[in-house]
Amino acid sequence: MLPRSWPMGRRRTIAFGELLEHPLVGLPGDSGLSRFLAAQASRSGRVPRHRVRLSGFDGMAQLVAAGVGAAVMPESAAMRFRAEGTRVLALADRWATRNLLVCMTPQGAERAAVRALADSLLSLKSPLLSLAKTRG
Q1: What is the longest distance spanned by two Cα atoms in the chain?
Q2: Is pLDDT above 60 for 100?
Q3: CB-based contacts of 18: which residues, under 8 Å, 6+ apart?
Q4: Of 45, 69, 80, 85, which residue is the least packed, with the fewest Cβ within 10 Å?
């Protein structure tokens, strides 16, 4: 998610390395996403420059809209919290496309609560979710 004031033209994607040239708004440093992004940046010998870190995507989107910096967040969060004054661009890097799986043991699939959770997640019909069935 970028401030709309940034000159990006009609681009639909941006490389993470290019994003690192700008100040960022992010989650706390010990969050999984922050650690993952720091590891990706370090692969090119860089460190993300955060102006501020917040505990949630809603606040991050508000600061992006105010022009404080750019934010990297899941597409679902970016679309949910986008505001006037922001643009959502996909990261162009191959590592940015991730497959999320709902996994359970055969015993877990027999439990109503586990099955209900899996069914609820899969009902989102997101291309990011798939069910991996294994035989135990």
Answers
A1: 53
A2: yes
A3: none
A4: 45
pTM recorded for the entire structure: 0.73
First to last CA, the chain: 42
Whole-number Å distance between alpha carbons of 64 and 69 = 5
The residues, ordered by sequence, that sit 6+ positions from 66 with a Cβ below 8 Å of its Cβ are 3, 85
pLDDT digits (tens, 9 = 90+) for 9-65: 888 899 999 999 999 999 999 999 999 999 999 999 999 999 999 999 999 999 999
* Token pair listed for 125: 């019909």
- Check: CB of residue 93 under 8 Å from CB of residue 40: yes
